[in-house]
Amino acid sequence: MAFFSAKFLGYSRVSFLAFVSYKLLTEPGTVLEYSGVMVLASAMNLPLLMVNDNSPIYGSLAVLLFTLAFTDFLPLVDDNTQYLELAAPARLLFFFVLAIYTCMGSNIYICNSLVFVYCFFEIWTGILIYSTTREEKMKRLQEIEKAEEELQEQYQRGELNDEQTAKVEKELEKAEIDKLMQEFQ
């Protein structure tokens, strides 16, 4: 059983990205010279990015991170679980490949401490969200299956009204037709 829900993890990711984008706008040194960033980059032998207070790149990076946070915020508010189920594995794959390239490549614009730490963060949150969404999906499917079994039992005992009986019979006919079609293929 998961300790956190996928929705909570999604909101945590959105909050963290919004916080980092705010820090990049106000104090970029706190992000670039954070001890965790330096330790992780040093462990991977990546070049450290130094703070240049006059660089406009921090604003562009902050807008990009805030846009990523905002695009994740809207499906979370709408309770769109399919978005998390589809986005998490795609992001995980992309950032895993990017992290490998960051460690193995030689392009200073991509192979640096900030890109690698961001990839590391995305991989970590991606694994958490992916595993949680799969667990929640399995739980939902089990609940649906249990409800269908209860409905079948009520149908067999004759405890359903006419409308419910017609609905169950229609579903049984459809399932039988699907089964026959699969046998002919």
Automatic annotation (TrEMBL):
The keyword Transmembrane applies. Residues 130-183 form a coiled coil. Keywords: Coiled coil, Membrane, Transmembrane, Transmembrane helix. The chain crosses the membrane at residues 32-51, 57-77, 89-109, 115-133. The keyword Membrane applies. PANTHER family: PROTEIN ILM1. This is Unnamed protein product. It comes from Ambrosiozyma monospora (Yeast).
